[in-house]
Amino acid sequence: MAHKIVLLGYMGCGKTSVGKILSEKTNIPLTDLDDLIEKRENNSVKNIFATRGEIYFRRIEHQILKEILSSPESLIVSLGGGTPCYANNHQFLNGENIVSFYLKASIKTLYDRLYHETDKRPLLNISDENELQEFIAKHLFDRSYFYNQATYNITVDGKSLDEISAEIISKLT
């Protein structure tokens, strides 16, 4: 089995939720990259974006991702939605002892999940429904090349967290 199981995809696709269940079922610890950045920086992702800017955030994100993926222990790693799209991070998705999963959600699924979370998500400062759907669609299009570099694509629409986790585990054995 891989030393690192990497979960990636757009915000709201279920990376952290699926990661928690995978961690319980495999006894492999979960590391959420955004949580690790917040601990290291002693600041929220939202505040880092607001006060230091996205370039600073992406530099720290890249540095911590490299550290995590080169560490010797087995981990499940939940990436931030933009992580694979910057600093050539997508090149880490299929490294030695790494298996990555793109949790692929439709625009409708993402919209339904994100509509009530716009205040918690630094990139989603949008209140108009149509504008939010357009934003998600454009962002998803821009990021799809990077997301599709994952070892596997797992469609999450209409599936429970347990079903998604079971599908991932079936690919690992």
TrEMBL record:
<keyword id="KW-0547">Nucleotide-binding</keyword>
<keyword id="KW-0067">ATP-binding</keyword>
<protein>
    <recommendedName>
        <fullName>Shikimate kinase</fullName>
        <ecNumber>2.7.1.71</ecNumber>
    </recommendedName>
</protein>
<dbReference type="InterPro" id="IPR031322">
    <property type="entry name" value="Shikimate/glucono_kinase"/>
</dbReference>
<keyword id="KW-0057">Aromatic amino acid biosynthesis</keyword>
<dbReference type="InterPro" id="IPR027417">
    <property type="entry name" value="P-loop_NTPase"/>
</dbReference>
<feature type="binding site">
    <location>
        <position position="58"/>
    </location>
    <ligand>
        <name>substrate</name>
    </ligand>
</feature>
<keyword id="KW-0418">Kinase</keyword>
<keyword id="KW-0028">Amino-acid biosynthesis</keyword>
<comment type="pathway">
    <text>Metabolic intermediate biosynthesis; chorismate biosynthesis; chorismate from D-erythrose 4-phosphate and phosphoenolpyruvate: step 5/7.</text>
</comment>
<comment type="subunit">
    <text>Monomer.</text>
</comment>
<feature type="binding site">
    <location>
        <position position="81"/>
    </location>
    <ligand>
        <name>substrate</name>
    </ligand>
</feature>
<dbReference type="InterPro" id="IPR000623">
    <property type="entry name" value="Shikimate_kinase/TSH1"/>
</dbReference>
<dbReference type="Pfam" id="PF01202">
    <property type="entry name" value="SKI"/>
</dbReference>
<feature type="binding site">
    <location>
        <position position="143"/>
    </location>
    <ligand>
        <name>substrate</name>
    </ligand>
</feature>
<comment type="similarity">
    <text>Belongs to the shikimate kinase family.</text>
</comment>
<feature type="binding site">
    <location>
        <position position="16"/>
    </location>
    <ligand>
        <name>Mg(2+)</name>
    </ligand>
</feature>
<keyword id="KW-0460">Magnesium</keyword>
<keyword id="KW-0808">Transferase</keyword>
<feature type="binding site">
    <location>
        <begin position="12"/>
        <end position="17"/>
    </location>
    <ligand>
        <name>ATP</name>
    </ligand>
</feature>
<keyword id="KW-0963">Cytoplasm</keyword>
<feature type="binding site">
    <location>
        <position position="34"/>
    </location>
    <ligand>
        <name>substrate</name>
    </ligand>
</feature>
<feature type="binding site">
    <location>
        <position position="121"/>
    </location>
    <ligand>
        <name>ATP</name>
    </ligand>
</feature>
<comment type="function">
    <text>Catalyzes the specific phosphorylation of the 3-hydroxyl group of shikimic acid using ATP as a cosubstrate.</text>
</comment>
<keyword id="KW-0479">Metal-binding</keyword>
